Amino acid sequence: MSALAKYDVVDIPFKGGQGVVANQSxxxxxxxxxESEVEKDYTTRFKFNHxxxxxxxxxxDVKGQSTRYVHALSKIEPGEEITISYIPTTMLFARRKEELxxxxxxxCDCQVCQEGAERDVREVRLAACIxxxxxxxxxxxxxxxx
Length: 146
Ligand SMILES: [Zn+2]
Hints:
It is a single chain. The chain is of the alpha+beta class. It folds into two domains: 1-86, Beta-clip-like (Beta Complex); 87-146, no CATH class. 31% of the residues lie in helices and 27% in strands. The chain is built from four helices and seven strands; from the N terminus they run E-E-E-H-E-E-E-E-H-H-H. The strands form two sheets. It has a four-stranded mixed beta sheet with strand order 1-2-7-4. A hairpin with a 2-residue loop joins strand 5 (56-62) and strand 6 (65-72). The termini are far apart. Bound molecules: zinc ion. Zinc ion is lined by residues 52, 108, 110, 112-113.
């Protein structure tokens, strides 16, 4: 690990392994890690633990080659675990559970998964409300001060 790393890899006993924890404040959009995918010691994908509501995302600049970047999706405070999602975050609970078990052999226990399918119902309803709201003419969306 570089001396300039914005994180430390530490033991997280309740997760039964290691995780990546910020050692300084990291702004939304800031690059946290950039590692070559062709190097033998490439471990980005597995160094960061999974969360269904991650605070960072992992991306390659060119698919299948060169560098994999991890960027903060929101402000991350020192001491906060940095997580990425191993699967698309738009999947519903049942599908996420299935994918994570099949591809990565674990059951996610994040806050969102603890709420299970109940949260999906709320999210689907919220999405429907937003869709309806978007159909209202713009002039009617503006709320005038009383
Ligand atoms: Zn989860």
